[in-house]
Amino acid sequence: MARVTRAALIQCSLNERTDAPIAQIKAAMQEKHIGLIKKAVDQGAQVVCLQEVFDGPYFCAEQEARWYEATESIPDGPTIKRMCALAKELKVILVIPMYEVDLPGLYYNTAAVIDEYGEYLGKYRKHHIPHCKPGFWEKFYFTPGDLGYPVFDTSAGKIGVYICYDRHFPEGARELGLNGAEIVFNPSATVAGLSEYLWKLEQPAHAVANQYYVGAINRVGREQPWDIGEFYGQSYFCDPRGKIIAEASRDKDEIVIADLDLDLITEVRNTWQFFRDRRPESYTRIAESLAVAR
């Protein structure tokens, strides 16, 4: 019997002013996303992934300590508890990207994974943290991730997460493949004029090199007063051959639904045996860099 997973991505625009109280912004964005999650489940979605820091604006456009108030503990904070209850109610697997506090002053860009029984399975913390123009001042907010590249075994397949800027680095994408990922979600916040030309290049390349599905999510709209550019949407799924199989528009809230045939992964790997033919002992510069880091 074929293993087919119906998966969904949600791209969404901000529905509150950025100068509103942070609790108000979070509450409004959560309500908006919950409505979209329910619509995705009505369409048969078994797993749903939201966009980067889903319940706020992309506040990294400025460097202001007030946004530290947006952090929550994972899994003990109220949002993950709420999402666990929602997952159980709807019988859906959820990938929830959030702003996490570990200790006061120690904050991460994180995604939690929850199964359809409402059980928290674990989290991924974004490894690669940009700090560059125009308005991507993430080192002011986020500590580099320290939990490796976990893969979560679910009824919808083996799920990995890679967050936004991570996608520019093939090493972590390969780690996810070696750890058994069948579906890798990449929740993002990225704007036209900076990365759009890479949007449909890098992630299909990761899918081809590692022979898994990729779900790429981007938010939509312009966020004032910063207006660092247009978040251009175009969330999509691509298959292990790098073919885009479902795609959203660039300018509106939208749910992307795709049926992912997980058996295609084996078919592709039996044709292109990249994992067999790797030569890690020959990648000496990578090994040297690792030795220096240690």
List keywords for this structure.
single chain, Nitrilase/N-carbamoyl-D-aminoacid amidohydrolase, 27% helix, 16 strands, six-stranded mixed β-sheet
Q: CATH first level: which class?
A: Alpha Beta
What CATH architecture label applies? 4-Layer Sandwich
Fraction in beta strands: 25-35%
The CATH homologous superfamily is termed Carbon-nitrogen hydrolase
- Helix % is 25-40%
Integer count of domains:
1
- Strands, count: 16
Low-pLDDT runs: none
- The succession of helices and strands, N to C, reads EHEHEEEEEEEHEHHEEEEEEHHH
Q: What is the multimeric organization of the chains shown? A: single chain
Give the C-alpha Rg.
18 Å
How would you characterize the largest beta sheet?
Answer: 6 strands, mixed
CATH topology: Nitrilase/N-carbamoyl-D-aminoacid amidohydrolase
Report the mean per-residue pLDDT as an integer. Answer: 96
Strand order of the largest sheet: 5-4-3-2-1-16
Number of helices: 8
Walk me through what this model shows:
The longest helix is centred in the first third of the chain and has 21 residues, at 22-42. Strand 6 (131-132) and strand 7 (136-137) form a beta hairpin. By secondary structure, this protein is an alpha/beta fold. The model has no long low-confidence stretch (mean pLDDT 96). The protein has a single domain, classed as Nitrilase/N-carbamoyl-D-aminoacid amidohydrolase (4-Layer Sandwich). 27% of the residues lie in helices and 28% in strands. The protein is built from 8 helices and 16 strands. The strands form 4 sheets. Strands 5-4-3-2-1-16 form a 6-stranded mixed beta sheet. It has a 6-stranded mixed beta sheet with strand order 8-9-10-11-14-15, covered by helices on one side.
